[in-house]
């Protein structure tokens, strides 16, 4: 199982180590540093690195490498999933997951890591349970603790850990009972030069924030459940009921959690909400290149496209750009050659455009590669796939909760080739 | 206020101050001090000097302080074992605490203190905790057994914790079950042959029930454990699949992949015409696709596994090509994997899309990725015939970009396309030649030279082109030099008139001025060929080449099967069997997919499954699976009988044979880089073996003269040796006639007068006469090798049977086999070479001087560590101890002493193996009880199992 964990910051220092079995010397990380040196970009460090006696499995999150050391055959996904859970827990506890935050809370971090794994076997990874065991640091509590000498370690046996609903603690009480659900869809797409869609798919999630007293039993039904043919559920969802009736029935965890994630594949027709007209040309022998970009809404179901951000990695030969945006602001970094255009809202009457020239190195040959354009955007109050919640009911408790459902579409990896 | 304050130090000396604070009376101050200590510890500072002071803080009611001290203890107990004992009492007390949280915490921490002295005190509290009323404690205790096993395996076994752990699999609480499974799996890893996880339908049912209710991590452990089970029939297999499928919708990708493993494995047993089979196939695709929308690291592992899955069952993802399209900001390791899978999924239906994508990738920035994309276009052309033309034109477009590395890569793949589709696309050669000057990589240069040589007759200035390369011959890499040599010889054979000078030049460069033996060898071969028989040279050098196919980059099927059983593990990421890289190679079991009948209509009961389960004692003779490396080993053996020495005069018939061989051999040289040319140039029979060609083409007359007489003597010797009465197992069929073109071989092993004999019965069940028998062994555990040739004097006519006895020596090359007494044999006759494997009773290796002195015996017995002792039961044996002793003595198992204690006879015996290993044994015989107990002790514990089998066989016959 998982032997040890090293946290490495972006300058290559190990700033925390934790061993769940015998101590593994930190020199094992040298193999990781070697791989890091070979990789051109920080993200390109391979996730699994073999060393003579161990295997290093790493993830990069918030510019910190979480490097797990294993010695025997352990499923790598198991390790990666666990590391993700560690990151999530830190974020949950400290608000941010940075080197500073971790160092500031090093004792809590240690207590957490100790609770999360026992001899390399996961012990408590649900944030509900962890919070019962180790109270997250808050300013108030720190002050109280210093005055009264009480601790941030729970005295109670984490009850949830043994019940049939391990994800929920007992005795939850709220004065305002509320349940909010966010349907968030991200569209990943590749659009080719001519504007036709090469691949488009939707990654959707339903995130929930449930603050309900007692042991509520919820059911959530959809207008069009057949859209959901590829889903991953939170363990609380009763799978049999879904299989039989296409209804989500569950006892929710307390607080924030991801109820389900789903995938609408490229085989279904996916509407593309924006289009891009572009004309980026370099002429042989000239030190100037033309750059024209126009954005427009396509299939947005009547909703506005906002928070539009365009960026593109221009060829290395481009020295500088002289562009004129019809709206928003643009920047070009001559060192990294990254062009960023913060567009804002798209007004269908007056389409935003960015036009002008690029200056190239004099005498250099025409760049070989064409830049790819990345677009980010948001569409509020609509889920691109058309998924709609029909109703939400609660059983098992007497009170009437406040319910809310929000929809949103975002661009995921939305790329336009030129 | 944050914890960073714990890092601040004062001038006075940190340790000193901490010590004072730790001994403070104020609780609060103590806690702060412990926190400071922990903080120093986390950044790697040595605070072990504070050990006694910290341990003093342990006896407290404050849970947090307790936990902090525990943290400290775990880290430093190893370096201060004597001090750590001080903590024991508190632990033992805490294990009795009314609060289950404290009990669990105490037992958990105690297990983490890796000090031998402490582990002794741990046993009693652990035993209690394993039976604790609170499942939280039980589940913590289950893991603790694994910890303890890691520290002291013997202790765990002696204390019977393993059995308690096995009982926990039937616990009422799913988390306890999951942890018990996890602990057992980890322990089993260090005992590959123990039946710790003995799965039967009842326990499987328990596991499946727990699967639904335990945590995500527990689900992974249970699924991985389930994957080792061999269902009895397709019905059971289906019902397990049905209960596992819901796991495919789990949010944790590791759960999903483990579920995929179980399904991929058990699916193998389902009849293909079953409706459920189709449903299951459909259900597998969406979760795999979903894995690709996860974080890049998860994607990488998923892609490596999908690579295996699409090779095994391409139908699952055949419609999902698009999800493997590369996004330009994917990390490079994801890009390269996606590309690989795109090629595997390429088919006529989607090739247009794939090509368009690949062309797009070829204009990206990352050089490695671009190269692989160009190479992928070539692989598509070879895989999907209909697309070849389109691929070639795409490649030409890319060559027009003049981007140096793209051009070079394109030329390398076009060479392969020429090999696959000869005489189809040669029109592009002119374009290729234009780029000759820009090629600076050896592989591209070699490819271009190959093309020029191969199509010399169509390229007007081929001689000039090749000559231009020749100028810097010595600066070229070997690959290019070899290729250039061959290309010029080809050119000469095609246009002999104008290129005589060129070929002489290259031959002298290769043979006289080069230090490279490969190059010299090849140069000499060509030279001699050209000078003795130009016609033959033409047939050799310009021989038709076998087509290359897309299969070349597929994983070899047996390996693929094994890897499918290991989906989700490191093995699947590296595409290597676990035995190849797991630390210490603790004899990892080879897993195989369950059996399926050839037609796929129905399934038999999966007896292969029991092999996977690990009995490892199959005695039935089996044909060696055609595993590449193994076959290679045997093929490399010189099968020509040792009596033929010196090359025979080259007759015309012989030359024809030699030519075929050369053709094949040279082709492999051209396709690959530089495979050394084995064998000498004389064209002797040995060349056949060296070239890796099937020796069946060897002229029959060669092997006719064989030493006779000697065999007769050995036969006689065998007869004389009989009276000793050593046990000889009955003959069994080793090689059925069906698998050997009519030759049936059965046999056994015997030890007669100190000589090991392999007694063979050869039966010709074919219609034609068999001649020219020869035999060879693969390397084996005890270095068994034939001491002489196989004496089959007269040709074996149809339906004739002949008995042969082959004396064996034990001085051959040694390689550990699995099982230990396995022997892989190759038998050759005039028809073909046949391979089979058999197992010899290890008693053949017991030498006559195996009687040990009593004193030595006693000392040796004590000297061998206890973990090397294995105990076995021999059932239903109705001999008294003296009869048994005599019987064993006949097989060189010597009784040293006999002792009788309470009606039980103890025989102490010694055995010496031919390689000098001593085996000591104690046989317990109770009058009236037909079941004997035998304990075997040996410095090489691997042989114990074999020795036991032998004793059993000897006693029962």
What does this structure look like?
The complex is a heterodimer of chains A (418) and B (957). Chain A is an alpha+beta fold and 418 residues long. In chain A, 17% of the residues lie in helices and 41% in strands. Chain A is built from seven helices and 23 strands. In chain A, the strands form five sheets. Chain A has a nine-stranded mixed sheet with strand order 11-13-9-8-23-21-16-19-18, with no helix packed on it. A five-stranded antiparallel sheet of chain A has the order 2-1-5-4-3. Chain A has a four-stranded antiparallel sheet with strand order 14-15-20-17, with no helix packed on it. Chain A starts with a strand and ends with a strand. The mean pLDDT of chain A is 85. By secondary structure, chain B is α+β, with helices and mostly antiparallel strands. Among the domains of chain B are: 441-543; 732-840, Sandwich (Immunoglobulin-like); 845-956, TATA-Binding Protein (2-Layer Sandwich), CATH 3.30.310.10. The chains are: A alpha+beta (418), B alpha+beta (957).
Provide a brief overview of the structure.
The complex is a heterodimer of chains A (418) and B (957). Chain A has 418 residues and is of the alpha+beta class.
Mean pLDDT of chain B: 77
Total strand segments of chain A = 23
Tally of contiguous helical segments of chain B: 39
CATH class of the domain at 845-956 in chain B: Alpha Beta
**CATH fold description of the domain at 845-956 in chain B:** TATA-Binding Protein
Weakly predicted, low-confidence segments of chain B: 584-588, 597-724
The interface involving the most residues is between:
A-B, 102 and 106 residues
Strand content of chain A: 35-45%
Strand order of the largest sheet of chain A: 11-13-9-8-23-21-16-19-18
Kindly name the structural category of chain B. Answer: alpha+beta
The profile of the biggest β sheet of chain A is: 9 strands, mixed
Give the N-to-C terminal Cα separation of chain A. Answer: 47 Å
Backbone shape of chain A = globular
